[in-house]
Amino acid sequence: MVSYKELGLVNSRDIFKKAFEGKYAIPAFNFNNMEQMQAIIQACVEKKSPVILQVSSGARKYANQTLLRYMAQGAVEYAKELGYNIPVVLHLDHGDTFELCKSCIEMGFSSVMIDGSHHPYEKNIELTRQVVEYAHKYDVTVEGELGVLAGIEDEVVAEHHTYTEPDQVEDFLSKTGVDSLAISIGTSHGANKFKPEQCTRNAEGILVPPPLRFDILEEIEKRIPGFPIVLHGASSVPQDLVAIINKYGGALKDAIGIPEEQLRKAASSAVCKINIDSDGRLAMTAAVREIFATQPAEFDPRKYLGPARESLKKLYMHKVENVLGSAGKA
Ligand SMILES: [Zn+2]
């Protein structure tokens, strides 16, 4: 058993409390390799933002759980070396079983998500309660989920949204004891969040997706005042990145995300954690594709992963400063 405290990590309790009071959200950026981790830490240290390093079960299989633990410990030390000791959370994204959550807690994770949202309500409660009971013994925080997001992310797939039912949230919280709650109000996983026919065109001819269901968010806030809410699937799918990818041989079709103004609005409400994964994937892919196409003789991985890391860092700094509002809050 490795305690996250020995690794220099923190759980999410205090940073969510401050985020709620300060009307901003903590960034949760997914990582599974060194360049992503470096970009996240460099960006968040430079902007003095707390950060959640997020690992999906797919990332855990890809990178190896032991390596990930040492990388997270390394991230804490790296931040100090860069000159600012920001709060760093190591969080399991979409844990689907008690055993996986337990294993992550034993390997030094400071926070876990147990996603029982695809189960019937009673089963979701039972599974979430079991994880909370175990996690709280070690002061590890737990995120639960009510409602189902559409889209695809690693092993999480759903055809349609099931919006969170505000009438269930109080009961779910009291029966499970979770520390934060992921909800479904129209965000979705992946880079194709909306079909073009679901969107309207603005004066410049740009596709505008349907707005998030802020009415549902407000209803939920009324039922559980002060409780930290989480938004998954909150990438904006920057069209300049999609254009670079497609210009240099990519084939992304109808990639549409959540407009950043809507995420800013959400961040100033009870939403205390915003998950961003797809935008990072797009930034890295755009940088690598451009170099492969414009410098075909290059074969040193540092010459394409280095610029990809730089592009990621720029993206994360922008998110922290302009979308989440967490800059200067570490
Ligand atoms: Zn998710």
Q: Can you give a write-up of this model?
A:
Helix content is about 45%, strand content about 15%. The protein is an alpha/beta fold and about 325 residues long. The strands form 3 sheets. Strands 1-2-3-4-5-8-11-12 form an 8-stranded parallel β-barrel, surrounded by 10 helices. A two-stranded antiparallel sheet has the order 6-7. Helix 2 (about 35-45) links the parallel strand 1 (about 25-30) and strand 2. The structure holds zinc ion. Zinc ion (ZN) binds near residues 94, 153, 232, 233 and 275.
Nearest-angstrom radius of gyration? 19 Å
The biggest sheet amounts to:
8 strands, parallel, barrel
* Main β-sheet, spatial strand arrangement: 1-2-3-4-5-8-11-12
Q: Give the overall shape.
A: globular
Counting DSSP E segments of at least 2 residues, the number of strands comes to 12
Keywords, please?
binds zinc ion; globular; alpha/beta; about 325 residues; 12 helices; eight-stranded parallel β-barrel
